[in-house]
Design goal:
The structure holds 2 protein chains of 2 kinds. Chain A is mainly alpha-helical. Chain A has helices at about 1-40, 65, 70-80, 100-115. By secondary structure, chain B is mainly alpha-helical. In chain B, β1 (about 150-155) and β2 (about 155-160) form a beta hairpin. The radius of gyration of chain B is 20 Å and the shape is globular. Classes of the chains: A mainly alpha, B mainly alpha.
Chain lengths: ~120, ~220
């Protein structure tokens, strides 16, 4: 009986971790597709659009000290409603009519992975 | 004599119709042979996921007749200069400008075929090219298109590189399609890296932006 419980737990755990990594892969794909054009594939703010005319530096998500200051709600809000919703640049457009709430959550999780940080 | 004239006229009319049909069919056949490996023309849009979009080698053309201007399309197919600074679906590789060239005859047949692919979402003859302070403010500041799209200012290139260039829109795009694309983008491209601005801008603002873009040299 106990052997059965151990095996069942292992199988369940494996399934969970597979689902987790699939979700992470989806979030990375979404980040690369929607965000990387300005924020860079590595999330360092060095996207292909950032040139001499780009009026502001897109957020560098890898700097934990900056990202800790942003609450999860702020990040969700700025993705959905654009930069001006938190008094930042309109170069960050509103994605709320494009992305679902689950997709925004996935992007938030990916951004938190990039900064290896949580909101303080 | 009268009967003969009528018969000849009918015959001539039939010949013209047959020729026109075979001309259009010619464009269809050329498209299938030369273009269909990268572009699709049978709408509605097929993409459901990001992976679907990334699998495409070139843009969908099922609404090409509503999107492009005929004279531009016929000329471009013979001398295809890059429209996007970056390779399609890439943020790292530049557009090499390696789109195949068509002969004048093939380009004419392809243009006839593609211009027949229209979208019911595009109302024709509504938007006229026009500058307005409102559109300029949206384009540059409020919802800056400049972040992702290149444009020409006094002969110099400015703006971002991830989207298609807006240089020469006045000759390339149909202003009515620009409006329809802003107002109902999902119908044309359900999965794309441009936000849906239809709830962020009013219909009047989208009309003005479309009219403004249609003035771009």
């Amino acid at each position: 009986m106990s052997r059965f419980v151990i095996i069942a737990t292992m199988v369940f755990g494996l399934a969970l971790s597979a689902a987790g990594s699939a979700q992470a892969a989806d979030a990375k794909q979404m980040f690369d597709f929607y965000c990387a054009q300005c924020h860079g594939v590595n999330g360092d703010g060095k996207g292909v659009n950032v040139g001499k005319d780009f009026a502001t530096d897109p957020r560098n998500f890898t700097i934990a000290a900056d990202m800790e200051k942003r609450s999860d709600e702020d990040i969700r809000g700025v993705i959905k409603d654009g930069g001006p919703s938190i008094s930042k640049s309109p170069l960050m457009p509103p994605w709320g009519a494009t992305l679902s709430a689950a997709e925004v959550d996935g992007l938030l999780a990916h951004i938190r992975q990039l900064c290896k940080c949580k909101a303080k | 004599m009268r009967l003969l004239a009528v018969t000849v006229s009918l015959g001539a009319a039939l010949l013209v119709m047959t020729t026109a049909n075979s001309y259009a069919a010619g464009g269809d056949a050329i498209f299938k042979k030369s273009c269909a490996s990268c572009h699709y023309t049978d709408g509605p849009a097929k993409e459901k996921t990001i992976a679907d979009q990334l699998a495409k080698k070139g843009p969908e053309l099922f609404y090409a007749g509503s999107k492009f201007q005929k004279a531009w399309l016929a000329a471009w197919l013979q001398n295809p200069k890059p429209i996007r600074p970056m390779k399609y679906n890439s943020l790292t590789e530049k557009n090499k400008g390696d789109h195949p060239k068509s002969s004048a005859g093939d380009a004419a047949a392809l243009t006839d075929f593609l211009m027949g692919l229209t979208s019911p979402e595009v109302k024709a003859g509504v938007i006229k090219p026009a500058e307005s302070p409102q559109a300029k403010a949206i384009f540059n500041k409020k919802m800056p298109c400049t972040g992702c799209h290149e444009f020409s200012l006094k002969g110099e290139l400015h703006g971002g590189k991830s989207g298609p260039s807006l240089v020469g829109v006045s000759k390339r795009l149909n202003p009515d399609w620009i409006y329809a694309y802003l107002a109902n983008i999902k119908v044309f491209k359900p999965v794309r890296d441009m936000p849906d601005f239809s709830s962020a801008l009013s219909p009047k603002e989208m009309e003005n932006v479309a009219a403004y873009l249609a003035t771009f040299e």
